């Protein structure tokens, strides 16, 4: 009876859900409590279920489940809730992934730190990309793997038992007490992992963190399909022209980047970054056995980049993090020179991750000096030639700049460039990311491709279709958005000259650096540093609330950039820098302007804000 009630209610929900549940990649932070991600949405959704209310208006008023669909979203939450209800589990114990491999890696990662044994059983055939040997040799994970005909064949075990199954009926899962984690592979939709038993609930946060940092939740469109299948409806995945769309995307990326390398398409920017990290580590193990690998990363860069790099290093004895100070009083070129000297003397392998322009302060280093520093020959302590660095460039904020081209400024440096596709490449319509290499680094791309596939973190068919549609217009959208941003920045400078604005100079714009995001450090007052900081934070929120209150159809409190329309406002320290150390956080407003917005109205509201302070 309960399953029938749940099914009937879910049918009504799918009929009446807001279209944003399927279409949006970013969600409003003004109706989002970061410390209660998913919880608040679930509690309110459960109340609606108990009162049998699936009306459109009620569903539209639900709070934001997660701030960004890579982490989770309303439909992933509803799918997990439905599966949990039908199987007598708590909703938190069910977690969906777009990847079929990453939930398994999440268990292995936690057990690595807990020094706990893992046995993996599977029924039927596993997908070809399940490369268990690489998981041991490159990722450092330890486990036993065995095929069984039936669950009853699984023995008792002192450790974690993972069972992988293909194409289950998610309404009735055989959750045997001997199974700690049940991973149900759902073909091209991804997978769902069930955490079985209260003693295993301590894994939930760790599994969620892997989904947050090294992969993505099952996409909204695929969750919609999975929900239809759960209800016994026609839920077949739309037949995308995958190969044709991918060929268009590869052609567009080659033109945009002036490269000819293999193009990798991941489910998000961090999926791509994870493939880069593990691919390069695999390459280093093969070419430089026994050497220490140094991942050099700015301590205050985008939180996901920062956190993931540190998470990778934490798993492997031969990988260490070296901080690269780049913002504020620190000069990226000088810091890079000093750090590379230090790494060379230690005889380590240097992999540098950097954002250009930096986020959130939108700073661009002297590129000619940076080139000189990166190509400088160095020796180790024994006087032998040091391993040359690989420069891993996150150019999400300037995807139009051809760093990796034959005549690019970094053509003499082994450079891998990647971009989060949720920004300008897709105009905010999907999360997929892409990656290319310059001629000097293109031999590394096969290793990166191997690990993107191994992790099953490739872009979905719909994501590739969206990129094929949006990429051809990207450079023009970047130009138009920059024009609006420059005009808005100039207006703020005239209206509130005491404010400190971080934006590219006119000279840099002439060189092609035309971002449409700027950070705004509002003027403050107070006797002590603490008072001044508190006042500034209050002012930040006042400005954002005025903007979204006065211009609700265009101004939005959310984390993103490169959107097709409107203006986005956020405070990076409370969202994108969520896992960055407190001392390295920036509590300043970040503003992302689009090519399509009512700029005069935004100016008017800002002028009204200035009158009130």
Structure description:
This protein is α/β, with parallel strands linked by helices and 613 residues long. It is built from 20 helices and 18 strands. The protein has a seven-stranded mixed β-sheet, with helices on both faces. Strands 1-6-5-4-2-3 form a six-stranded mixed β-sheet. Helix 1 (2-16) runs antiparallel to helix 9. Mean pLDDT is 91; it is low at 573-580.
Itemize the secondary structure elements and their pairings:
Blueprint: H1 2-16, H2 20-23, H3 39-50, H4 56-60, H5 74-87, E1 94-97, H6 102-114, E2 118-122, H7 132-137, E3 144-147, E4 160-166, E5 181-185, E6 191-195, H8 204-213, H9 220-230, H10 242-257, E7 264-266, H11 269-287, E8 293-297, H12 303-315, E9 319-323, H13 332-345, E10 349-355, H14 367-375, E11 390-394, E12 414-420, E13 433-437, H15 445-454, H16 461-470, H17 474-495, E14 500-502, H18 506-510, E15 517-521, H19 529-550, E16 555-557, E17 567-570, E18 589-593, H20 599-612
Parallel strand pairs: 2-3, 2-4, 4-5, 8-9, 8-10, 10-11, 11-12, 16-17
Antiparallel strand pairs: 1-6, 5-6, 7-13, 12-13, 14-15, 15-18, 17-18
The portion of residues assigned to helices is 25-40%
User: How many DSSP-defined strands?
Assistant: 18
Our estimate of the beta-strand percent is: 5-15%
Main β-sheet, spatial strand arrangement? 7-13-12-11-10-8-9
Biggest sheet features: 7 strands, mixed
Which of globular, elongated, flat, extended, rod-shaped describes the shape? globular
Uncertain runs with pLDDT below 50, 5 residues or more? Answer: 573-580
Question: What structural keywords apply?
Answer:
613 residues; alpha/beta; seven-stranded mixed beta sheet; six-stranded mixed beta sheet; 40% helix
């Amino acid at each position: 009876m309960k399953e029938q009630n749940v099914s009937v209610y879910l049918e009504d929900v799918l009929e009446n859900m807001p279209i944003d549940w399927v279409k949006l990649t970013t969600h409003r932070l003004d109706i989002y409590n970061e410390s209660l991600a998913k919880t608040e949405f679930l509690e309110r959704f459960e109340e609606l279920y108990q009162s049998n209310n699936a009306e459109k208006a009620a569903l539209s008023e639900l709070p934001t489940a997660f701030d960004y669909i890579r982490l989770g979203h309303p439909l992933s939450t509803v799918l997990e809730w439905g599966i949990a209800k039908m199987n007598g589990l708590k909703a938190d114990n069910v977690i969906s992934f777009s990847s079929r491999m990453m939930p398994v890696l999440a268990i292995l990662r936690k057990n690595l730190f807990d020094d706990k044994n893992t046995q993996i059983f599977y029924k039927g055939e596993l997908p070809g990309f399940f490369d268990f040997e690489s998981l041991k040799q490159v990722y450092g994970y330890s486990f036993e793997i065995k095929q069984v005909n039936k669950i009853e064949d699984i023995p008792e075990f002192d450790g974690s038992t993972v069972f992988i199954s293909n194409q289950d009926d998610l309404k009735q899962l055989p959750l045997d007490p001997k199974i700690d984690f049940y991973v149900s592979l759902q073909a091209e939709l991804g997978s769902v992992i069930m955490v079985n038993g209260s003693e295993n609930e301590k894994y939930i946060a760790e599994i969620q963190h892997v989904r947050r940092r090294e992969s993505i939740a099952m996409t909204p469109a695929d969750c919609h399909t999975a929900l239809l299948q759960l209800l016994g409806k026609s839920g077949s995945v739309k037949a995308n022209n995958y190969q044709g769309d991918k060929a268009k995307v590869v052609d567009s990326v080659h033109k945009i980047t002036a490269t000819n390398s293999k193009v990798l398409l991941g489910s998000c920017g961090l999926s791509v970054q994870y493939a880069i990290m593990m691919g390069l580590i695999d390459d280093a193990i093969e070419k430089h056995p026994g050497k220490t690998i140094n991942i050099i990363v700015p301590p205050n860069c985008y939180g996901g980049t920062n956190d993931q790099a540190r998470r990778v290093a934490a798993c492997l004895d031969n990988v260490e993090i070296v901080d690269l100070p780049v913002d504020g009083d620190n000069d990226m070129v000088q810091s890079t020179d000093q750090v590379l000297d230090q790494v060379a003397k230690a005889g380590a392998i240097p992999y540098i991750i950097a954002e250009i322009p930096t986020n959130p302060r939108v700073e661009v280093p002297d590129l000619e000096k940076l080139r000189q520093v990166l190509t400088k020959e160095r020796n180790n302590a024994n006087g032998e030639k040091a391993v040359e660095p690989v420069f891993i460039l996150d150019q999400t904020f300037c995807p139009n700049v051809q760093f990796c081209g034959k005549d690019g400024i970094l053509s003499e440096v082994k450079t891998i460039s990647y971009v989060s596709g949720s920004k300008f490449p897709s105009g905010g319509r999907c999360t997929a990311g892409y990656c290319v290499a310059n001629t000097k680094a293109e031999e590394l791309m096969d290793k990166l491709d191997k690990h993107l596939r191994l992790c099953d973190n490739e872009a979905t068919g719909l994501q590739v279709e969206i990129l094929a549609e949006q990429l051809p217009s990207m450079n023009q959208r970047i130009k138009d958005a920059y024009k609006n941003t420059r005009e808005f920045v100039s207006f703020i400078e005239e209206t509130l000259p005491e404010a400190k604005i971080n934006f590219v100079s006119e000279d840099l714009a002439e060189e092609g650096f035309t971002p449409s995001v700027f950070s705004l450090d509002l003027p403050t007052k107070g006797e002590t540093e603490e008072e001044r900081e508190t006042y500034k934070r209050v002012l930040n929120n006042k400005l954002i609330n005025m903007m979204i209150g006065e211009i609700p159809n265009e101004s939005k409190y959310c984390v993103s950039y490169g959107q097709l329309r409107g203006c986005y406002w956020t405070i990076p320290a409370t969202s994108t820098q969520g896992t960055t150390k407190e001392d390295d956080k920036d509590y300043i407003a970040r503003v992302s302007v689009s090519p399509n917005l009512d700029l005069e109205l935004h100016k008017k509201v800002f002028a009204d804000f200035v009158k009130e302070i």
